[in-house]
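> Could you send the DUF5606 domain-containing protein prediction when you get a chance?

Sure thing. Input:
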Amino acid sequence: MNLTGLVAVSGKPGLYKLIGQNKSGFILESLDAQKSKLVVNMSTAKLASLEDITIYGEDEDLRLKDVFEAMKAFKGAVPEAKADGKDLRKFFFEVAPNHDETRVYASDIKKIVSWFHILKDLPIFSEEEQAVAEVQEVEVVEEEKPKATKAKEAKPKAEKAAKAPAKKATKKEA
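Output:
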């Protein structure tokens, strides 16, 4: 599952895809059928990347990505977000049995279920293998390039630095 670039905006329903940035904030595109674009101010809006979201667990926190994977693999039907809180809690214990019942509220579960229903129709669940392979290739290529360019850039700077004081010294002598 590839959650890269997907964010939730505080005070706004739904999920958004980060498509760019300008001087005043981030440019987002909604993941619903309308695909509306939105510019959020960096100083007033809070963005939460879905990759970074964790859920309180009894022993350790659970990653949202792992919970979504469990929801996808769930054999029964995933309830709607408007379902009864007790039904949602029962469902959530099946997909995330180690979550902390006292710190994970029914509203949190409703939000996670509604996000899952938005994402289940998108090709996000099948993107993982391609994205991970591409990221690994890009990291290898990027690691090699900066080392070579730094070495090339260092030589001209050192030569310029060596020549510059010599020129100044000759001007002072004259």
